[in-house]
Amino acid sequence: MTTTTPTARPTGGKSRTKNVVGVRHEVDAKELAAMGLRDRWYPIYPSRFVGVGDMVKVKRLGVDWLLFRDATGRIRMLEDRCPHRSAPLSVGQHLGDRVACKYHGVQVDGNGTVISVPGMPGCALEGRTVTTSLAVAEAADTIFAFMPLTADSEVTEFKLPDRLANPEVSWFSNFAEWKGPWRFYMDNVLDPMHGAFLHRDSHSMFGGDTSARFRIRETDRGFFFEKTDQRGVNFDWVEYCREAMDYVDLEIPYAESAGPGGNFGIVGMATPIDANNSAIFHWRTRTVSDWERDVWRFMYKATLEEKHWAVLEQDREVLEALAADADKDEHLYQHDLGVARIRRIYEADAEKQAAVLRGEGL
Fold it and tell me: Where is the Rieske domain positioned along the sequence (predicted)?
């Protein structure tokens, strides 16, 4: 795991109204909810997609970022703006421990500090940390970043979900980009009942009743949303977890023909790209060791991975077909307690963060 310390672009003077790091206009609770809440860790991009010497541009939470590895292989994440004239650094040159803007050659290191201004050596810009850099960590084949709300935000400790941190658990990572708000993904996974309908013809969710009763059960890190009258048959429960990052944890029963390891576990996360697009991350897991681990990993690549992608495609097709305001005019019932709960949590968070930006309670 690697980390860096975040810095933020100065605002040009003290103000009671703060602004979101990387965003150059005032943001309210509605926009925070749409573009992504701050002061938490998010998965950003698969580690394997950023090689030594690569410069990769990604948009996350509505901001353009540059990912690159420095001379030691350490991942760095900078706002994709040169501090001189805001040209994108991602189209510049990789210089090992820094990047050079293509426009005027200004060189910025992985901490966002200007190292050199070739056009005017010794100018006041040199030595200043004026490009936003983020705290990053690499784990589970993924680059994670802490997304601060303001320049004063303190980076929380990075912690992987239990399944991914457990050495007895073998996992495969999965990344996709979907058209649709990130909140649609969270609604979908907090709705286990859709498995008995949307995924009825899948390889793993064909069993069980198509009617059920649900309950919410509190945990020390979030809550379970689970069927009260069926367990271990279909997509019968999901746990929403709030730790270093927000994620969902669930299990799908597997037949013995799918190899050793018992139930198939899933850790899922969604990172907003912008208000209308989402980066979706899954880790598919089983608790296996020794020869059983080898069998499971062989079977996954040989037969199961394609089937798992087919299930994800069923979700993607439905969520991408939803209208952008699909969650604004609904008639919810008992199966939707999890959906209603997660929405209230995020609405409350957005209001609290908007209050911080307004300077309330400071």
Answer: 41-145
